[in-house]
Amino acid sequence: MTDAHPSVRPDRRAELAAGLARVRARIADACSAAGRDRSEVVMIAVTKTYPASDVLALASLGVTDVGENRDREAAGKAAEVTTAGAAPRWHFIGQLQRNKCRSVVRYADVVQSVDSVRLARALDAAAVAGRDRPLDVLVQVSIDGDPARGGALADSADPDTGLGPVAEVVAGADGLRLAGLMAVAPLGWEPERAFGRLAEVARGFRAVHPEAAALSAGMSGDLEAAITYGATHVRVGSALLGMRSTLR
Ligand SMILES: *Cc1c(COP(=O)(O)O)cnc(C)c1O
Fold first, then answer.
1. Which residues are recorded as modified (N6-(pyridoxal phosphate)lysine) (predicted)?
2. Are 110 and 176 a contacting pair, CB within 8 Å?
3. Of the residues 20, 122, 177, 211, which has the fewest C-beta atoms closer than 10 A?
4. Least-confidence region, from 1-10, 114-123, 171-180
């Protein structure tokens, strides 16, 4: 832990510390209920819509991983945080357009939202050109198989959006390292059903890619169920930072 940056107001830091204590307790309880070791689950603080000063406060409270879903916002925030002397791991978790890859590879440590072969190839080319080490990638999978909502399709041989083809391209890319899977529970699904289905997909995926063991699942509302079904990373925004004024 380090001292908070002077831009962090003490009352906001106290608020974030309280949120962090609550979320850490939920994660610890879920781990013990599931018979899992607490060290198996990484909490990613999803800081979208919140300022760099919140990232600095969270970093000073021991948060090591942060998540963002829009390139323009994330690029500026990452630069501010770096200038202030903090170095959390940045996870890009939002829908990514191919023309944003060159920007994202400059600040992201992990991209969790690769769901097509075309995107994987664009990200690889950007990573080879713009980084000195490979970029960690999680393939985003669709739990309900609805292609409209994003996510590669587990039971599909589609050459662009099938999980098999996407994972194969990432695994073979010089600029990328296949690290695992990411998913969002579909609206209207019971979390247990959604993450149970995801666990089945992850089992099949690991049989082919045993080195890619990360499973990013679970948000503020459903992190307990995700941990029950094997999540190694939970992505927590509103429970930590407060309700966002915009729907994202
Ligand atoms: C915003 C977001 C989160 C965090 O959601 P909360 O409900 O605020 O915890 C997690 N994952 C993704 C992909 C997101 O876009």
1. 48
2. no
3. 211
4. 1-10
Instruction: Output the CA 44–ligand 1 centroid distance in Å.
Output: 10
Could you confirm whether domain 10-241 is CATH 3.20.20.10? Answer: yes
Q: Which atom of ligand 1 is nearest to the CA of 220?
A: 9
Q: How far is the CA of 164 from the centre of ligand 1 (A)?
A: 26
Instruction: Determine the Cα–Cα distance for residues 48 and 46; give it in Å rounded to an integer.
Output: 6
Would the CB of 103 count as within 6 Å of ligand 1?
no
Instruction: Of 132-136, 183-187, 242-246, give the lowest mean pLDDT range.
Output: 242-246
Measured by CA distance, the residue closest to atom 11 of ligand 1 is 235
The verdict on the CB of residue 69 being under 6 Å from ligand 1 is yes
Which atom of ligand 1 is the closest one to the Cα of 241?
A: 8
Q: Does the predicted model carry a pTM greater than 0.85?
A: yes
Let me know: does 169 contact 121? Beta carbons within 8 Å.
Answer: yes
Distance, in Å, from the CA atom of 27 to the CA atom of 153, rounded to the nearest integer, reads 29
Residue 2 pLDDT > 60: no
Average pLDDT, the chain: 96
- pLDDT for 91: 98
- pLDDT at res. 45: 98
CA of 83 to the centre of ligand 1 (A): 26
